[in-house]
Design goal:
Layout (H helix, E strand, L loop, with lengths): L8 H16 L3 E6 L6 H14 L4 E5 L6 H5 L5 E2 L3 E5 L2 E5 L2 H7 L3 E4 L15 H10 L3 E7 L7 H8 L9 H5 L3 E4 L4 H9 L6 H9 L4 H32 L14 E6 L5 H15 L3 E7 L8 H16 L3 E6 L3 H11 L2 E7 L16 H8 L4 E5 L31 H18 L8 H19 L1 H19 L12 H48 L4 H16 L2 E6 L18 H10 L3 E2 L11 E6 L4 E8 L9 H50 L1 H14 L10 H33 L8 E3 L1 H16 L4 E4 L7 E3 L1 H18 L4 E7 L3 E7 L35 H11 L3 E6 L5 E8 L6 H4 L1
Parallel strand pairs: 1-7, 1-8, 2-3, 2-6, 6-7, 9-10, 9-12, 10-11, 12-13, 19-21
Antiparallel strand pairs: 4-5, 14-17, 15-16, 16-17, 18-20, 21-22, 22-24, 23-24
Amino acid sequence: MNDAARPDPDALLAELRAQEAQAQRGKLRIYFGASAGVGKTWAMLSAAQRERAGGRDVVIGVVETHGRSETAALLAGLETLALRQVPYRSRTLAEFDLDGALARKPVVLLVDELAHSNAPGSRHAKRWQDVQELLAAGIEVWSALNVQHLESLNGTVGAITGVRVHETVPDTVLDEADEVVLVDVTPDELTARLAAGKVYLPQQAERAAQNFFRKGNLIALREIALRRTAEHVEDDVRGWRIEQSGRGGEAGPPAWNTSGAILACVGPHEGAGQTVRTAARLAGQLNVRWHAAYVETPRLQRLEAPQRDRILAMLQLAEELGAETAVLTGENVAEALAAQAQRLNCATLVVGRPEPAQGWRRGWPQRVLARELARHAEGIDIVEAARADSSRRLAPPRPGRRGTSDVEDSDRPHARWPGYAWAAASCVAVTLLATPLAGRLELANIVMLFLLGVVGVAMRFGRGPAAFAALLNVAAFDFFFVSPRLSFAVSDVQYLVTFAVMLGVGLLVGQLTAGLRFAAGVSTSRERRAQSLFELTRELSAALETSQVVQLGADAVQGHFGGRALVLVTDANDRLATPAEPPPGFDPSVADWTFRQGQPAGLATATLAAQPWHYVPLKAPMRVRGVLALEPAQPRWLMIPEQAQQLDTLARQIAIALERVHYVDVAQQAVVEMESERLRNALLGAISHDVRTPLTALIALAESLQAPPGVGGVDRPAVARAIVVQAHQLHALVNNLLDMARLESGIAGGAVQLRREWQSVEEVVGAAIRAARPALGEMMVRTELPPDLPLVEFDAVLIERVLVNLLENAGKYGAAPVVVSARTTERSLLLGVRDHGPGLPAALKGREQTLFDKFTRGQAESATPGVGLGLAICKAVVGAHGGEIAAANAVDGGAEFTVTLPRREAPSAEETV
């Protein structure tokens, strides 16, 4: 198979995931029309009746009949949900009950008036947002929409009809609809319906016929609706072709390649909204991605709060229409936009048409942004969007007064007069300083002092005060230091050049210094964001527990945004765990909604915007891991794109760390389960052989004793001795199992309880040899013990057990003679047990310590009885004493085990007594 034609596994996996998500999501059908009265609701209810007759579960969420009897008649037989009563300004409004619809969860739900604005206090500000939540819950939704309610066409429709439409729907809602049903009638038929009272009441119909429902308007709106429906059909065809081309094969049609994005230039003027809408409509027609950017210069940084709010509203509108937004900073707008367009690979720039100059400015040359952009970006197309005075005015964002730049609020002067006052004060101070020096310094040096004052004012207060200081300094220099003094008259015309140069240099220095101050503020803010992200990433990389990630994440977010921050994670039942004592303003239900829906909510969002906290889902690559809740010190920061992106990045890092810790726990649990399974299998395998063999022998011997004396030639004393031997083997096995369990339980509880006493090594060795004699049989055991061995402090019973296990191991796998040795150093006691057998297996070379693991035997398949616990018990006992045990092959053959125990000087006889 050709590698070029081989499907991309990652692409296939992404396609499967997208198909799975799409299968779980409900379908959206929109009945689309040119205006009210074309029959959208009637067509929707007629289709609902047919579906109900076919056996589908169809429920009406909300339907507006507008008093039309034909439409109201179609409600018969359809279940209708009760509306939610919302108190508002001393009256009660009936609204669609979103929670009731989610609880009922029908197969098909009818939600009329898609562009409707919900009453204040509702979960979502717009009904189309309710529909999005219904779709996410897997409910199929049918709705109705008029063309004038599309956001990108708001200005166009307003210019045609002269009517400003305030309720709009983002174009992406229509673009993402699974079905668009065009409901169309001719303008003459619609006019006849209006006259017959089938659209509005007679009084309303008369006004509508004179304004919105004029024939020319209806023809234009019908054309726009038909074009918009055709664009949706074209998108469906394009999507099908791309899907077919992605499946590979020579028969599939090639996918259409699209390249080059669109960049909309958002400015502070009123017509920026139309620029955004034009760019969105153009991007939809060309099927390309698009961006929106606002460039803040030092001059625009000083805009009043209402103008800054309008800019943020434009950026929010662009995000709703599917754009990626950014706030840029720079001295020159055209240069910043051209650089952004090249960085984003944009092929088209959309700018607003400049307003015509008024008054005396008509004769003054005007700077046109389109011309400057053409000079800086020669290879990029520039589209100039017309103004639309009839488009709706954008409401300012909710969270109070906001800024738009990277510069901290402390860098933004709230009142201008202090700067000008300080400029005047600096002029007075420089004049007073230079007056006593007038006879000693040249006038050129005094000019330098005045320029120094301008620099200081520019660094602290910006351009305006710096320019004012330059003017005052020129006047003060002329009045107090140029002959004739104390007069503005000039005796030497050359001083006019000095004044002009001094003023120009002062203005230039002030301009450059203020620009440097602005750039420094931007750089400081960006460095602060990068530093906070770097510190969080570094600290999270070392976190090994969920509690550490929660604390580090909350501290990082709170340190950057101020206020209060909470990181909420899931409990054992995969439910969001909320604090037992939530802070003021925190709403656990909103946090739970954010976790379940995977969407932001609360402050500075379109969902429950009245909340004082901002809730962000912690989305990891696999799933949502929790919720980040933030009550920022300055709510307006959340409206700045850069700060919002910073919050999203911090949330993503926290989510990834939580997922990493989760899978570390999963891996550790898997290792524990694998080890437990291995030990269980080893124990069962050992017991099945080493327990069953003695038991089988015991049963056989006991049955032989049941025969009458003298029958069968049974040697009863020999049988009794055999029973004792088998019982001893079984007793040793059980003892090993119990000793290992006791030692491990002691270690798990913190420490094995040792009875340390001063012991004689010779006595412990002798007792061990006697205890191991049944296992050693006739094998010779030799001791090598110095006569001057001191007393050593240890638990005699446990150390004897260690020596017994080592001797039994030598008896099983070694050969005579077995040598037991002991010697001391200044700080340790060394015990050795050596045999003269074949030694350790060659497969264990370099891995001798594995012999001391539980259920490990020198020979995996052997007739020698044992379960592999003896050496493990030795290691546990020696480790409890703070010592070490090792195994190795002796130089002249055989295996040698060495036990090293710590020791201290034995007390004197007087101390012992």
